[in-house]
Amino acid sequence: MITNGLVLNSKPINNTRKAYAYYTGNVSHIIRKGELIDAIRLTITYDEAEASKQPTYRLARGNELKWWSSISEYVPKNKIIECIDGLYLWNEIWSTDEDGFEDYSCGFTKIYS
Question: d(Cα 113, Cα 111) in Å, to the nearest integer?
């Protein structure tokens, strides 16, 4: 993937962090949308030293990062996040409908594969 710093359009990107994922605990079975699926506890960290203490750690996937950001108290909103499948940036969108009501949406958007 990307090593020794990120370069985009021949310019170095210094505002990045890597997201690491690891799973802990036992597999449990849950029913979701009428189907039985395996579930296990996911943790995302941006600290390689913390992640490397876990035998299953690796770079996170974008879908894991997006899910984690919906439940985590800490989201690096001002950083480009490197995952195994690309680069992601936090995005916040405010809009107003014709009746004057505001709508807000947020989440990570993939900016580079």
Answer: 7
What does the CA dihedral 8, 1, 45, 72 come to, rounded to 10 degrees? 60
Question: Rounded to an integer, what is the distance from CA 37 to the centroid of its chain?
Answer: 22
Query: What 3 state SS string does 3-51 have?
Result: CCCEEECCEEECCEEECEEEEEEEEEEEEECCEEEEEEEEEEECCHHHH
The pLDDT tens digits for 51-96 are 999 999 999 999 999 999 999 989 998 899 999 999 999 999 889 9
pTM for this structure?
0.75
Q: End-to-end CA distance of the chain, in Å?
A: 10
